[in-house]
Amino acid sequence: MNKITNIKFLKNHQIQVNFNNGLDKILFCEAFIGDDTLTSPLREENYLNKAKIYENGRGIYWPNQFDICADFIYAE
């Protein structure tokens, strides 16, 4: 099971995601930011950088409850 162990915020709406098996991925957030109320706040780097890892490592989430599961990030 893929679990996220750490995230690091990079420039240009990118997040480095580390997994429990040692794999590192770069999540390109601009690809899923739209005009809707859930994803549009992520355009602001300050808001994007508020992402947290779920306690079980199965995804990351933001204060507005938008989330991305670990399997999606792993497959990207």
Topology (elements, then pairings):
Layout: E1 4-10, E2 14-19, E3 24-28, H1 45-48, E4 52-53, E5 59-61, E6 67-69, H2 70-75
Antiparallel strand pairs: 1-2, 2-3, 4-5, 5-6
Short structural summary:
The protein is mainly beta. It has helices spanning 45-48, 70-75, and strands at residues 4-10, 14-19, 24-28, 52-53, 59-61, 67-69. The longest helix is centred in the C-terminal third of the chain and has 6 residues, at 70-75.
How would you describe this structure to a colleague?
This protein has a 3-stranded antiparallel sheet with strand order 1-2-3. Strands 4-5-6 form a 3-stranded antiparallel sheet. Helices cover 13% and strands 34% of the residues. By secondary structure, the protein is mainly beta. 9% of the residues are buried. The two termini are 16 Å apart. The protein has one domain: NE0471 N-terminal domain-like (2-Layer Sandwich), CATH 3.30.2020. The model has no long low-confidence stretch (mean pLDDT 96).
The helix fraction, in percent, is 10-25%
Biggest sheet architecture: 3 strands, antiparallel
Care to count the β-strands? 6
What name does CATH use for the topology? Answer: NE0471 N-terminal domain-like
Class per helix and strand makeup = mainly beta
| Arithmetic mean pLDDT | 96
Strand order in the sheet with the most strands: 1-2-3
Distance between the termini: 16 Å
Shape: globular
Estimate what percentage of residues fall within beta strands: 25-35%
Low-confidence stretches: none
The name of the CATH superfamily reads Uncharacterised protein PF10387, DUF2442
- From the 3D coordinates, which CATH architecture would you assign? 2-Layer Sandwich
